[in-house]
Write a structure and sequence with these properties.
heterodimer, A: about 80 residues, mainly alpha, two-stranded antiparallel sheet, B: about 525 residues, Sodium/glucose cotransporter, 20 helices
């Protein structure tokens, strides 16, 4: 579990790509490097959340929620 | 704003829009058949929404007019850095909030039967007062959000319909030259009326289930339209490579963030997406989930959906600069319309793209309408009268009456010709984001106290109001607004407000007496309740 949250923290840090700040080059001839980096970042974010489903999913919450007595949809 | 993508008075785009609105009304009628007539079905769709519908409704709700129009406009103005600034950060943070806060709140809501955020906070903090403080704050922050939709829709339709009805709508005088502008265009007051009417119809017909169905449909529409516009525009510019090379040759500064976006601005902007943790309409959508597992698809697909919508829009805005396409009046938000008009000359595409923009707008408006009605019914009326004294039918009716009242107020404000509507969005999101420490602490920190929560909300008000005045109201009134975000020492204002909120919450909670374990235990899985506590949420 700890490793997963370290991975999330690392991803948060990697969002700040200061090394590409002034980079104007084009990846694949059309994608600006800063945009290519952050589009890849979006893919990485999705991959990290796939890991979350496998590694840190709170299974216990489902049962806890169902133990309640008040699914009235009303005034609680 | 002179969005002039239909200079010829061809009414085809308008017929396409009318057909689109007709489809939504049809969807509303179908969802009415599934509506069971109970308040639970109306307000939280009987907590029966599955993964696909939850993904589409949550994504559609979080993406506003900004998704297509604002993203293109911002990249026209600031270059490709806009994607990292607003989109990739949201991809990470939104899913993080869904995972850490959304699922927990779903479980708490299901266990205790909550329907609104305020019910939850009243019970969690064992305080009626917190409800009285939060209700006006949340409603006050949702209203600008609604305004963004109505004003955005009015501006887009006015631009599309220029010249279509010269006899009915003579236009408005240009304040500077006195010449008539927008001659023959459908005026914003009429667009606001029609849009509000259609959204009210399908949410009245099917409640939150109707909104979820409509959101799913509209999300597909605006995602598809964004991609279609991208493909057609890139072809007209000679292909993606030629389009980007033009930027490299003519406006290379738009290909990086140097001189466009500050490092601290970029860093602190990452706090803005935390707003999803406190959106009352999103809270309500979370509660509709059938189970915790329903969230899985939303958590994984949300960053990908953001990428699918934003990458093409950011590229198009940048390509506009490279190709020398400039929006009328220098208004960046008109650049997508201008590209469609200049490059495609196709009224059918114009109509479809405009339908996509309206889809993005309406898929946020509907959830916000339902949520406001729910809050009024549960947090004000039922809270005071007691649930047993108000029948299910009467609850639904009260919700609808309040929605109409709020829509009317918002509609009247939207007629004031507010400028800088997307800047207003960032302020609105900053307010919600700064309340995130409160919701996060409430689900993870047993030591949070009522006084700490109140201190946090007061700190948000005490910092947000003066910063909003100095950064938005004063420049607007004096006509000295400058392009780009208003910053505090290079940072987004949300950094100051968020910090004030978090520090007040922690310090005051630690200085005040811990809440009774019997109250707190009810909200933390794995703890045995100390003793039964009856609270009136």
């Amino acid at each position: 579990m700890r490793a997963f949250w370290i991975l999330v923290a690392a991803l948060a840090v990697l969002h700040h790509d200061a090394w590409l700040w002034g980079d104007r080059s084009l990846v694949f001839g059309f994608l600006p490097s800063g945009l290519a980096y952050h589009a890849t970042y979006s893919l990485a974010a999705a991959a990290v959340w796939v890991l979350a489903l496998r590694c840190v999913w709170p299974d216990e919450l489902e049962e806890w929620a169902s133990e309640g007595d008040a699914d009235s949809g009303g005034n609680g | 704003m002179t969005l002039a993508f239909a200079e010829a008075a061809d009414r085809t785009p308008l017929w396409i829009l009318a057909a689109y609105l007709g489809l939504l009304i049809g969807l509303g009628t179908i969802s009415q058949r599934a509506f069971r007539g109970t308040s639970s079905d109306y307000f939280v769709a009987n907590r029966s929404i599955g993964p696909f519908l939850l993904l589409m409704s949550v994504f559609g709700t979080t993406m506003t007019a900004f998704a297509l129009v604002g993203s293109t406009g911002k990249s026209y103005e600031l270059g490709i850095g806009v994607y990292g600034l607003m989109a990739s950060s949201s991809g990470l943070v939104h899913s993080l909030v869904f995972f850490l806060v959304g699922i927990k709140l779903w479980a708490i809501g299901k266990r205790h039967g909550f329907v609104t955020q305020i019910q939850y906070f009243r019970a969690r903090l064992d305080s009626n007062g917190i409800g009285f403080l939060l209700f006006p704050v949340l409603v006050g922050l949702v209203i600008p959000y609604l305004l963004i939709g109505l004003v955005g829709a009015g501006a887009v339709i006015r631009g599309v319909t220029v010249g279509m009805f010269p006899e009915a709508f003579p236009g408005v005088p240009n304040p500077a030259s006195g010449a008539m502008m927008f001659v023959g265009a459908v005026p914003p007051w009429l667009t606001g009326l029609v849009i509000s009417g259609v959204v009210l119809f399908y949410i009245f017909a099917g409640g939150l289930r109707g909104a979820a169905w409509a959101n799913a449909f509209q999300t597909l529409v605006f995602m598809a339209m964004g991609v279609i516009a991208f493909v057609l525009i890139s072809r007209k510019l000679g292909g993606v490579t030629a389009a980007s090379e033009q930027v490299l040759a003519n406006a290379p500064e738009h290909l990086s963030r140097e001189g466009k976006i500050g490092q601290l601005q970029f860093l602190t902007y990452m706090l803005v997406p935390f707003s999803v943790g406190m959106f009352p309409h999103l809270f309500q959508h979370w509660l509709t989930a059938r189970s915790a597992k329903t969230f899985r698809l939303s958590i994984v697909a949300h960053p990908l959906f953001i990428m699918i919508v934003w990458v093409p829009c950011v590229l198009m805005g940048t390509w506009a600069v490279g190709a020398g396409i400039h929006p009328p009046g220098g208004n960046p938000n008109a650049v997508l319309a201008k590209m469609v008009a200049d490059l495609l000359h196709d009224p059918v595409v114009t109509g479809l793209l405009t339908a996509g923009i309206l889809a993005a707008i309406m898929s946020s408006l509907d959830s916000q309408f339902v949520c406001l009605g729910t809050m009024f019914t549960h947090d004000v009326v039922l809270h005071h009268l007691g649930k047993e004294r108000v029948s299910d039918r009467r609850q639904v009716l009260l919700g609808r009456v309040f929605i109409v009242a709020i829509v009317l107020v918002t509609y009247l404000i939207s007629l004031l010709s507010l400028p800088h509507v997307f800047d207003l969005a960032v302020w609105c999101f900053s307010g919600f984001a700064s309340l995130f420490p409160l919701v996060f602490a409430s689900v993870y920190w047993r030591r949070l106290t009522k006084a700490g929560a109140i201190a946090s909300i007061v700190a948000v008000l005490a910092t947000w109001i003066p910063l909003f005045y100095v950064g938005m109201v004063e420049p607007t009134l004096s006509g000295t607004t400058e392009p780009g975000d208003w910053l505090v020492a290079g940072m987004m204002p949300v950094a100051v407000i968020f910090a004030a909120s978090a520090v007040s919450l922690v310090v005051v909670s630690l200085l005040t007496r811990p809440p009774p374990a019997a109250v707190v235990d009810r909200f933390f899985p794995g703890t045995v309740p100390s003793r039964a506590v009856e609270t009136k949420p």
